């Protein structure tokens, strides 16, 4: 059904069928992997926490020296138009800004802005109840504070993650944990303190929301998290726009706590779902 | 004149006008900066050292888990066809292999192979006689042995290089020098020993040719090169396909030797030019 749903995208100042959205090969994303993006979700056709995602999008663009060709007001109007055209209730919207068409294949041109929307399925209750298994890998993202399109290490590792029967890969440097390719990492200590890495990470919007929610009920620390901390943890979970709060039950083959999703993790997921629902304007 | 020269490219199994070479936005180079490439030059319409570049192209693809959709024989036939169509005497040919059209914006699809050819101007005698100024920056390329399309750091630094009145940026990590974004680094010691970094670099084809040529006349070392070594050096130069041997006269505002292109550097450039000429089959 959804595969027959005709989707539209935004490119070169117009909304056009997604299937017709093409970039010339001189674009600096293709030539040199140069670009930034952001990604938010809609619920009942309404963007969630849009302001936060827009702020991060403009901040990433600034960090990478790319000028967003639309003002925030124009961007919101375009997003609204695109969402109306697509008519999806639950979706993910990607805003992508590339280094533009480059004359010499190295120096940026005027940036190309692309917006795409796709149907989104959040983790099912069964997936949450099972939790996920992860492996670790020594790596720290370049320019971690900017949401660049550079995922060469994460994508190269897909086969390795699969071969080990895992669902994702957690980055660390000399035992100091940072993040997943597309998600943030949290653990819950024996005393219910909630700990998440503070440095060399992309600051997720879901991470921010979960920190706020957690702060109302638990002790919360942003700081240094090590692989040793994980070995001692009672619970662990990842956060992201598409994963919300997803329990981690195994790291490098070793169970976290009793090897089942923990009560604090599941409690925070319920709080996040309630926060998301509360964002929706009654129609 | 050249700007009116109609250029052709290869994409999706056909040779087509470069101006019509477009990739769908779902391509993993656009979505996630995932791809590899290589770049060789032609002289009198003939590729130079093609076998070396093809070997590195296939090696980069293998390292990144991408399958080149053409055999080496088919690739050579395509290159030959493209060069004939374009009719350029002196050119650069780029072969680019992306992660392909991705269903979910993360997992690779069948790779897209693109070939582009552009007119190429090598450094003039005046540029060689002037030499270049460079700055340094602490960074080491991810997966340095593969020629990936990830240049986010190099391109982000363009403005900084320009602001400092320099021509390029040399990467080092804790004082250990590796390479330029697109070139290798060499220095000449007081005793005429030629030294170049051995690790965390892309092994340039021009680097390899220069090492071979230098080995016939001078003592040559591949090893660890530090910023201190640069401070003591008599000469320095960069090597690449498009720069050949280009003297470096200043690093971070400090002159190399007497601040002028050195005799060993200029001697090696002449040897390289002779080697290139010797590759050309008489027509």
TrEMBL record, chains A, B:
Gene Ontology biological process terms in this record: amino acid biosynthetic process; carboxylic acid biosynthetic process
Reactions listed under catalytic activity: L-valine + 2-oxoglutarate = 3-methyl-2-oxobutanoate + L-glutamate; L-isoleucine + 2-oxoglutarate = (S)-3-methyl-2-oxopentanoate + L-glutamate; L-leucine + 2-oxoglutarate = 4-methyl-2-oxopentanoate + L-glutamate
InterPro entries linked to this entry: Aminotrans_IV, Aminotransferase-like, BCAT-like_C, BCAT-like_N, Class-IV_PLP-Dep_Aminotrnsfr
Molecular function as annotated in GO: branched-chain-amino-acid transaminase activity
Cofactor or coenzyme needed: pyridoxal 5'-phosphate
UniProt pathway annotation: Amino-acid biosynthesis; L-valine biosynthesis; L-valine from pyruvate: step 4/4; Amino-acid biosynthesis; L-leucine biosynthesis; L-leucine from 3-methyl-2-oxobutanoate: step 4/4; Amino-acid biosynthesis; L-isoleucine biosynthesis; L-isoleucine from 2-oxobutanoate: step 4/4
PANTHER family in the cross-refs: AMINO-ACID AMINOTRANSFERASE, AMINODEOXYCHORISMATE LYASE
Protein name in UniProt: branched-chain-amino-acid transaminase
């Amino acid at each position: 059904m959804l595969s027959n749903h005709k989707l539209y995208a935004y490119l070169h100042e117009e909304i056009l069928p997604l299937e017709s959205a093409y970039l010339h090969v001189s674009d600096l994303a293709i030539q040199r992997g140069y670009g930034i993006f952001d990604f938010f979700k809609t619920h009942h056709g309404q963007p969630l926490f849009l302001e936060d995602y827009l702020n991060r999008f403009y901040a990433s663009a600034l960090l990478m020296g790319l000028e967003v060709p639309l003002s925030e007001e124009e961007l919101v109007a375009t997003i609204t138009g695109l969402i109306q055209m697509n008519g999806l209730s639950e979706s993910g919207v990607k805003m992508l800004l590339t280094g533009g068409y480059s004359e010499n294949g190295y120096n940026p041109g005027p940036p190309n802005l692309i917006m795409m929307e796709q149907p989104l399925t959040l983790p099912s209750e069964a997936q949450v109840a099972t939790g996920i298994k992860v492996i670790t890998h020594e790596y720290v993202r370049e320019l971690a504070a900017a949401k660049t399109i550079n995922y060469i290490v994460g994508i190269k590792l897909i086969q390795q993650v699969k071969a080990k029967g895992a669902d994702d890969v957690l980055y660390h440097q000399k035992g100091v944990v940072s993040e997943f390719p597309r998600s943030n990492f949290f653990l819950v200590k024996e005393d219910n303190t909630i700990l998440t890495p503070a440095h060399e990470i992309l600051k997720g919007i879901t991470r921010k929301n979960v920190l706020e929610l957690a702060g109302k009920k638990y002790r919360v620390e942003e700081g240094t998290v090590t692989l040793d901390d994980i070995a001692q943890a009672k619970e662990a979970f990842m956060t992201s726009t598409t994963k919300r709060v997803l329990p981690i039950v195994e790291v490098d083959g070793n169970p976290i706590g009793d090897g089942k999703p923990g009560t604090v993790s599941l409690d925070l997921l319920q709080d996040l779902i309630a926060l998301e629902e509360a964002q929706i304007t009654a129609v």
